[in-house]
Amino acid sequence: MIGKEIALQFANKGGKVTIIDVNEKALVETVAKYKEKGYDNYTKVVNVVEAEEVIDTVEGVSFGSCRKTSGYRKYFSVFCR
């Protein structure tokens, strides 16, 4: 619930958000709420316990120049395994 609210605040300020959930039904419901407000976002069913699923998702999202310097692969391989 906290993640949904934080993402909604980012979207309210014009940010683009990626919405992930292990539960596809919950993901569809969340996406519907965002679309009602006119927000466009990237969504994917992801089990955040599986580091490779998270890494694949992050690699699939464009972060511009931040993507090249974020070090996300090291972070997730240390903290998600």
Describe this structure in words.
It is a single chain. With 81 residues, the chain is mainly alpha-helical. It has 2 domains: 1-45, no CATH class; 46-81, no CATH class. 57% of the residues lie in helices and 10% in strands. Helix 3 (51-60) runs antiparallel to helix 5 (72-79).
Quick overview:
The protein has 81 residues and is mainly alpha-helical.
Low-confidence stretches: 65-70, 75-81
In whole angstroms, the N-to-C terminal distance is 24 Å
From the structure provided, what is the oligomeric state, counting identical versus distinct chains? Answer: single chain
Topology, number of strands: 2
Helicity level, as a percent range?
55-70%
Shape, principal axes of CA atoms: globular
Question: In DSSP terms, counting alpha (H) and pi (I) runs of 4 or more, how many helices?
Answer: 5
Structural class: mainly alpha
Strand content: 5-15%
As for the number of domains, it is 2
Tell me the strand order in the biggest sheet. 1-2
**Rounded mean pLDDT score:** 75
Order of helices and strands: HEHEHHH
Rg to the nearest angstrom?
13 Å
Largest sheet features: 2 strands, parallel
